């Protein structure tokens, strides 16, 4: 069917009162292009990776496609408008060669696209980057290669955040000392494994922010310290989990605030390291 000039003129005339509106609102919502790119990359990665990494990236793809639908809105039947229909799958995207490449690419894409993603979707994508990085195998040596910039990070606001984070790392170290007094052999072995991992993050933070405060002689413990082996084990679980939550929040906050790219990359790796340590040490 030909589209006549008369019909075109009528359409343009009818649309005239809406000239202040973007085409998205005139013709319906459209999928967010940056989220769609990330979703297709996750789907492609799921096809080239193996085992748990493939399963995680498939889960990430579902989350991202669902987020696209959520942003578009749905009707009473739970379906998005036709303008927002998305064919799920990798499209023409090439999957990562291994889980390390997938994690690096996701973090790089997140840092590069910062400011382009919908604000409300940022925590989801940051969480995916942290989880994927945390799932990587530990290096054979204890030399974790954190992406610490060559020059110290000079941003004052970020330095304040870093100061609060290192205080929380110190507080957990103090808590491990308290728990050690009541630890059985298994818990003591875990504490001995956790201590150098905290030191690694603290050293990385000090390299990036040389003016961070030193460890204080003592720290307050919410609810008091443990008094027996059972309480000590639960206490360690709690302080480590709380620290992981704090690191994950800091990573998400770095992408909703005007933080430098160097900090955004570093904080994702530090959050992932804390999460892996709490879950495996």
From TrEMBL:
Residues 1-20 form the signal peptide. This is DUF4439 domain-containing protein. InterPro entries: Ferritin-like, Ferritin-like_SF. Keywords: Signal.
